[in-house]
Amino acid sequence: DQQVKQNSPSLSVQEGRISILNCDYTNSMFDYFLWYKKYPAEGPTFLISISSIKDKNEDGRFTVFLNKSAKHLSLHIVPSQPGDSAVYFCAASVSNTGKLIFGQGTTLQVKP
Amino acid sequence: GAGVSQSPSNKVTEKGKDVELRCDPISGHTALYWYRQSLGQGLEFLIYFQGNSAPDKSGLPSDRFSAERTGGSVSTLTIQRTQQEDSAVYLCASSTGDRVTYGYTFGSGTRLTVV
Asked: Shortest Cα distance from B111 to chain A (angstroms)?
């Protein structure tokens, strides 16, 4: 039972354009969401998070949007840079507790 | 240390052997987590330690898997009688508590290959 789903295995965008990565979840108890970035041979690194009491959180070039009614969140990267090329995982937790449930990941390629 | 340290970085073992994977969390982090990533899959939760509380073992896939955390610091994940489906990257992470507001800090992982 995949509670957090990233249905697009890969995404390719041109440098300077917007990257939009999507994530869907099924568990309505999830109330805290995070995005992680992973380079090859490294562990994932925390990128940005959002609480369910918000619908948007912004940090520099990265913005996360949450649509609770649709159980959907997205990560926008603008402008995209070649260094953003990595695997992006979304994750969710219940009541901001320790255990995170991760999606399968989306590989982003930003072309110069 | 400055980050989460995992050893070994790579491990090749024969089917049926036991393996031990080690994790040194960031000093002072009370919470420690083990995940694994199989080829083409997301990160699968295995086990979670928080302070002196009983660990959350709900993600361990079988009784061949066990983990300990000694002295609230170093953790060892043990896989007995390894099978080929155990091949994966095993990731350890730590955090300051049971809140994930700022996310976990992950180590670089141990790539386990069972042949």
From this structure: 9
β-strand A10-14 against A106-111: which pairing, if any?
Answer: parallel
- Amino acid, res. A36: Y
Q: Which pLDDT tens digit goes with each residue over A21-47?
A: 999 999 999 989 999 999 988 999 999
Chain A residues with beta carbon closer than 8 angstroms to that of B103: 34, 36, 46, 49
Write the pLDDT tens digit of every residue in B49-100: 988 888 999 999 999 999 999 887 899 999 999 999 999 999 999 988 656 6
CB distance from A41 to chain B under 8 Å?
Answer: yes
Residues A107 and A87: beta-carbon distance below 8 Å = yes
